[in-house]
Amino acid sequence: MNILIIEDDARIADFLGRGLRAEGHRVDVASTGPLGLVAARQLARDANDDHQPSVLILDLMLPGIGGLEICQTLRAEGVALPILMLSALGTVEDRVAGLRLGADDYLPKPFDFEELLARLESLARRSRELRRISPARLTVADLVFDRDRMQASRGGRPLSLTAKELALLELMMSAPGRLFSRERILANVWGASEDPLTNIVDVYIRRLRAKIDDGSDRPLIHTVRGLGYRLE
């Protein structure tokens, strides 16, 4: 397994690194938020290329960029890397915030190393299963989303989409015909930190329509008034 540890406590990072390498895993360490974000993006690209199970161990309290922001940024960019959050902040509210922003698991400090190993192995198994069942390309009519390259096209014409637009499009294309409420879209694409009363979902739906449906005689994004949106 390829493991990236983003942890600014040198003692904990060294302990984890030595222990995980002794278990036969490849381990890299980043000590700041900005360095960790760059390393996480690279780990995700490497995972797509060599198809090895990869996991990110992410501390919350980091210099530069906090762990929650790193998690939210990666998910907004469509990075599906399994994320295990570590933090001394172990309240229910802290765990819920981390999970809603896209973390796959949350382990409060102090922790038992054997439990950490078990959780990492579980995340790796789930990642392998998702790779087997999740297609690399999503297709709805003539709209195509390439998950490996994070690129979309319609009728063979490449679409210029931002990271948030890509995340929103991938969510809707993952379940064609399914009705997504504004609240569900907000939670999946923006995370729990966004004001639930914001109109940002409607703004981004309009942007997607302008890029995907305008000029086409077959619109794919549909509004169900008062309930949400579906793509079919």
UniProtKB/TrEMBL annotation:
Keywords: DNA-binding, Phosphoprotein, Transcription, Transcription regulation, Two-component regulatory system
Protein name: Response regulator transcription factor
Residue ranges annotated for the OmpR/PhoB-type domain, each copy included: 135-232
Pfam families reported for this sequence: Response_reg (PF00072), Trans_reg_C (PF00486)
Annotated PROSITE patterns: OMPR_PHOB (PS51755), RESPONSE_REGULATORY (PS50110)
UniProt domain Response regulatory: residue ranges: 2-124
Lineage of the species this protein comes from: Bacteria, Pseudomonadati, Pseudomonadota, Betaproteobacteria, Burkholderiales
Cross-referenced InterPro entries: CheY-like_superfamily, OmpR/PhoB-type_DNA-bd, Sig_transdc_resp-reg_receiver, WalR-like, WH-like_DNA-bd_sf
Modified residues (4-aspartylphosphate): D59
Superkingdom of the organism of origin: Bacteria
DNA-binding region: 135-232
Annotated source species: Ideonella lacteola
